[in-house]
Amino acid sequence: MTSSTKHGSRRTATALGSVAALVAASAGLWAATTSTAQAAALPAPDHIVVVVMENHAYNQVVGSSSAPYLNSLATGGANLTQSFGITHPSQPNYYALFSGSTQGVTDDSCVSVGALQGPNLASEVTAAGRTWASYNETLPAQGSTTCSSGKYAQKHNPWFGFGNVPLNSARTFAQFPTDYTTLPNVSFVVPNLCSDMHDCSVGTGDTWIKNNLGAYATWAKSHNSLLVVTFDEDNRLAGNRIPTVFYGAHVTPGSTSAATYNHYNVLRTLEDLAGATTHAGNAANAADITGIWN
Predict the structure, then answer these.
(1) Which of 75, 92, 120, 168 could form a disulfide with 105 if both were Cys (CB 3.0 to 4.6 A apart)?
(2) Contact of 99 with 280, CB cutoff 8 Å
(3) For residue 256, what are the β-bridge partners?
(4) Taking the model in full, what pTM does it have?
């Protein structure tokens, strides 16, 4: 082999090595960004309020004359027509929605306060440098760990099961602010057993949402914020198909999605909307809710 041939071979090898390095770098960049591509397509609301209602199937609420306000949210926002609970009864669905797992909960018994330490929406929001709280109607006092009190039921409050969620983040609904700019970045509202349609009618729950959160919903549309209304489970007669509605800024009015979603998809979407960098339990493998954002 001549000297010039040797130098040519080395130049070719160097060039090929450079190309390989560029390809590897590009592949690494793709791998790093692909996991967040879906989240990047979502808006970044300043405030998200999630309201969880009780034990009604999709067709008992959507299209019902007993729920004019909820139907106005569905037509003025986004209606998920194939949204499902995870199981029965109530409590494991709340854990699924909050932490991506039923956490072994199979009934509505009062749980051991702070026994769990796994990731959940509150811990993830906090880790991302954002704020969290829950607002619980008829909770006797902020941070109270009582199992029940009048129409209040702890079984609808999964945050009490986690030791990594501060007790004082569980507020009474009387503490829900009228200055919505002071709301946490992410919050859950849990009406009591009458207001959530568990013990009282669809109309009672519909009126409660209108009277207590209607002003927030209107405000949210023009203040980069979001209201989500969902149900824990159906009435056990409709395959656990439940109403789920998104309303507010960046939601396309009148949009619908016929994609099949459940509590894990809702959790995944809340995590990504809030800028969380991790995903709890089954939310890690769930798809974001898409097709409703403008």
Answers:
(1) 92
(2) yes
(3) 79
(4) 0.87
Give 134: exposed, middle or buried? Use CB within 10 Å, 0-12, 13-18, 19+: buried
pLDDT score of 40 = 54
Q: How many helices (H) and strands (E) does the chain have?
A: 7, 11
Contact (CB, 8 A) for 208 and 35: no
* CA dihedral for 279, 39, 288, 246, sign (positive or negative): positive
CB 275 within 8 A of CB 98: no
The SS3 assignment for 127 reads helix
| Placement of tokens 């995944």 in the chain | 268
The 10s digit of each residue's pLDDT in 138-197 is 999 999 999 999 999 999 999 999 999 999 999 999 999 999 999 999 999 999 999 999
Could you give the CA distance from residue 17 to residue 147 in angstroms, rounded to a whole number? 66
Under DSSP, is residue 104 helix (H, G, I), strand (E, B) or coil? coil
Task: Give the C-alpha separation, 100 to 207, whole Å.
Answer: 30
